[in-house]
Amino acid sequence: MRCSHLLSLILLQLGLGTAFQQRRIANSVAFTRTDERVLQRPSTCLWQANRVDRQTAWNDKYQELVDFYEKNGHFTVKKPSSLYTWIATQRRKRRGTEGCIPHTDEQTRLLDEIEFPWGIGTGTDRQTAWNAKYQELVEFKKKHGHLRAECRSSLYDWQEVQRRKRSGTKRYSPLTDDQVRLLDEIDFPWDTRRQTTWNDKYQELVEFKKNHGHLRAEYKSSLYVWQEVQRRKRSGTGGCIPHTDEQIRLLDDIDFQWDMLDQWNDKYQELVEFKKKHGHLRVGRKSSIYDWQEVQRRKRNGMDGYSPLTDDQVRLLDEIDFPWDARRQTLWNDKYQELVEFKKKHGHLRAEYRSSLYVWQEVQRRKRSGTGGYIPLTDEQIRLLDDIDFPWGTERKTAWNNKYQELVEFKKNHGHLRAEYRSSLFLWQEVQRRKRNGTKGYSPLTDEQIRLLDDIDFPWTPTRGRGGVLHDKEA
Q: Which of 21, 291, 292, 317 could form a cystine bridge with 17, CB 3.0-4.6 A?
């Protein structure tokens, strides 16, 4: 070891090597002399031996720092690493932080010789380093048009530190107001996760336009929802964080449609043409116009996340009898189709008493007459029912008269009104009793009908005979 230091001393005296290398050699020789002086004292106390161990460890770490500087040209050591921790400790020692053993004059001199960035006192050194990195970031944006530095690069890590400083993360000194202002001026992305997500979605939109030639994403898709959010951000609605100038510029570059009014008019016209062609608004579920109708209903209902329709838009939709209640309209269409099938099969519309189709027809008559608190039928629904010769009411009166006449003939032939159990005449009599009693779901009899039944001594309250079969009182 002595030979090594002797050689180093000779090189130093001959003036060989760089100035920095000469300082390294001289420091190394100085360390060895100090160690030898202490070790040559046989009476050195234990605390002195510990001091030698600490000095040796310090010297080793100092040499590691010198090597790092020679290789990289700076002192910005990545963390976590032992050298990073050691550098932080030297600053605390210089600062006189409680619990830290202060530097010796020799250690301070050695660190000053290599222009160690203390980062204390007035903060000039630290501010200079910050300004240099900020300028590097500004140049990066000028060159690339954004601030997305390569992951794990020194500029990437520096941006991460600024975010932690701004958020008040422990162990980080806060940014000054001036530093925050400077970063805001270049649209610094404080929330990197949100910025990354925005960039990914924007790129997806760009690819969508390349593939389809437009920006009309499928309704309810993530890309459709994302575009809706961008419009709210621009308009300042919905509590969304506003765009940066760069984001607005990027969207403008791909002709993003900020105002949806023109698109709404195009879709409305498409719906009008559909009705002219088909006579109705029942669009197939897989078509884009079906999805558009769904959106209009949600807008009309004031559903969360949807901008409301204007009065003019509501008026235009009402003019073409737009079905606002889609679920109810779908149910009505299904039942109507069932009635159409019934007529094809049986040749008439007289569904079995109390069946779901029978009840549904009753409801349509009440809707048409405006009774029972039902929502009235639309013009289209009335037209559809008329197309299959639906019996609104006149025919029902004729049917009642026919059945009444049948009952009169039955009494002439049998001398009583006890029709065969479960025959159509038997069931019809049951219905008249329920109508007279005001049973729920039955339209009441007219005064004329009651008079006619009374004329033939109709048994309003029948008696039960053997087997539970109903008979009139005369029996």
A: 21
**Contact yes or no for 133/155 (Cβ under 8 A):** yes
Instruction: Name the packing angle between helices 222-235 and 192-212 (round to 10°).
Output: 120
Helices and strands of the chain, counted as H and E runs: 20, 2
Does the N-terminal peptide bond of residue 80 adopt cis geometry, omega within 30 degrees of 0?
yes
Q: What is the DSSP letter of 183?
A: H
Residues 6 or more apart whose Cβ sits within 8 Å of residue 321: 281, 378, 379, 380
Place of tokens 């030698």: 52
**111/87 Cα distance (integer angstroms):** 10
Whether the model pTM is above 0.70: no
Model confidence over 180-216: pLDDT tens digits?
899 988 988 887 666 677 888 899 999 999 998 888 7
Nearest to residue 271, comparing CAs of 292, 242, 285, 244?
A: 292
Classify the C-alpha dihedral 187-191-192-193 as positive or negative.
negative
The string of pLDDT tens digits covering residues 109-161 is 898 888 788 764 445 666 788 998 999 999 999 998 888 888 778 898 898 88
Query: Residue 64: is it exposed, middle or buried by C-beta count within 10 angstroms (0-12/13-18/19+)?
Result: middle
Residue reference for tokens 């390294």 = 24
Separation between Cα atoms, residue 454 and residue 431, nearest integer Å: 15
